Amino acid sequence: MDQIVFFWTGKNLFIPEYFVKSISKKFCKKYKIIQVSDKKTNKIDGVDVYIKDDLPADIMTARLKAYSLVETKNKNTIFCDADSLMISELYFDDFVEGYHLMKRKRNSLINHLHPEYFPEFKNKYFMDLMPFLFGAIIISKKENFFVHLYNICTNLPARFHRWYGDQISLHIFYLDNKSKFLFFDQDKYMHIIDKTNNNPKEDLQILLEKKIPFITFKGPKSKKQIIDYFSLL
Fold this sequence. Notes:
Layout (H helix, E strand, L loop, with lengths): L2 E5 L6 H14 L4 E7 L10 E5 L5 H10 L7 E5 L3 E3 L11 E6 L22 H4 L2 E9 L5 H9 L4 H4 L2 H12 L4 E3 L2 H4 E4 L6 H11 L3 E4 L4 H9 L3
Parallel strand pairs: 1-2, 1-4, 2-3, 6-8, 9-10
Antiparallel strand pairs: 4-7, 5-10, 6-7
Helix pairs in contact: 1-9, 2-4, 4-6
C-alpha cells in the first residue's frame, strides 16, 4: 500500500489531526498513514502505523532521524508537512523509481540575522542554498535516504539543528548525488496558502478542478484556515 508519512511532536495535536482526517475522509484505506514521533507524543486517531523513538531535542535533527525510520524500499512513499490537507488523489504511478523533489519557485534574499545569526547566509538567496521545498518529498521504491541527511545535519553547526538544517542537508546530499534525483512540479501537487486574505470556497473549487492532491498552510492564520478549508471538503 502507498504510504503518507508525517512528523509531529508535542501535546497539541490539532494540526496533524486535521491532516489525518482529511486523508481518511476522502481516501479511507487507500493509503497507509504513518506518524513518526518521539516517545512523548500520542498517536493520532486514524494513523495506521505509529513509529516512535528517542529523538534529538532540536527540531531539524529530530525530523530527519524520525523520517529515516520509515521503510521505503519496494514501496511508494511521500513525506509531507503535517500542516496540510489532502484534497485529491495522489497517483504514485506518475512517479518512476527514484527520489523526487519539488523545486522552489519563489526566491528572495535570506535574512542571515533571523531567527539567529547565520554568517553562511549573508548576501545569499534561497535558491542558492535551499533550492528545494521540504514539504513534500517522494521516495518511489528506493532505500530511505534521510539517514544520510540526518548524519549530514548532525555534523553541521548546532544552529542548523534548530533552523534550516533539513533543507541545507538535503541540498548538500543532492549536490553529491544529482543522478539519483528527479523533480515534480509543485503547482501540480501541492498548493501553498500563506496569505491572510483568501477565499476558501473559491480556492478549494479551483484546486479540486485541477486535482491538486495537497494544500499546505503557512503563516499566523494557518489553524483557522485549516478548519475553514477542511469544513468544505
